[in-house]
Amino acid sequence: MPAPSPAPIRVLLAEDQAMVRGALAALLNLEEDIEVVAAAADGESAWRELQRLQPHILVTDIEMPGLSGLELAQRVQRHGLDTRVVIVTTFARPGFLRRALDAGVSGYLLKDAPPEHLVQALRTVQRGGRAIAPELALEAWSEADPLNERERQVLRLAGEGLSAGEIATRLHLSHGTVRNYLSEAIGKLGVGNRIEAHRLARQKGWL
């Protein structure tokens, strides 16, 4: 009598582009050992589905409305969920990979990789391994991120066009504290103003 087939790897997709989300779901559902249990179009929806379905693996993009993929990974880590996180993104920047690894991510793949790489990565991650895009792995530790989390928050909002006063209101900080964070970030990055600081940090993958 043949042995029963193992339970499929239960996957939750989080991707804001409908065409990409649909293509990923169709691709993964072709595999006998993988089941896409839900697909979310934004970070907050993905977080709700994560808690409800408790999938084995979350496959997520980085930039999404609501919560980013990195923020989702941080929540999974902070709440001690068993779900492993695999990021599939266009951001081939070592800074993003470093932040992802700090958030406990098990996989980091680029969207232009062959589809079979994702399938194999999910199997590797399910077995407890890691799957990192090889072209990024060696570069990930080449340049340290000089920003702390608060400086990153303030700089990200400054890049969205918010004034120091508006940032202070958003983050429940004093105006002077926000100016200090901006000044520290500008100094650490060795640039002349907040716009240049945002541009450089974005380019390096630190935002």
From TrEMBL:
The keyword Lyase does not apply. Gene3D superfamilies: 3.40.50.2300. Keywords: DNA-binding, Phosphoprotein. Residues 10-126 form the Response regulatory domain. The modification 4-aspartylphosphate is found at residue 61. GO terms for molecular function: DNA binding. Residues 140-205 form the HTH luxR-type domain. GO terms for biological process: phosphorelay signal transduction system; regulation of DNA-templated transcription. It comes from the Bacteria. Signal peptide: none annotated. The keyword Phosphoprotein applies. It holds the Pfam family Response_reg. This is Response regulator transcription factor. The lineage of its organism: Bacteria, Pseudomonadati, Pseudomonadota, Gammaproteobacteria, Lysobacterales.
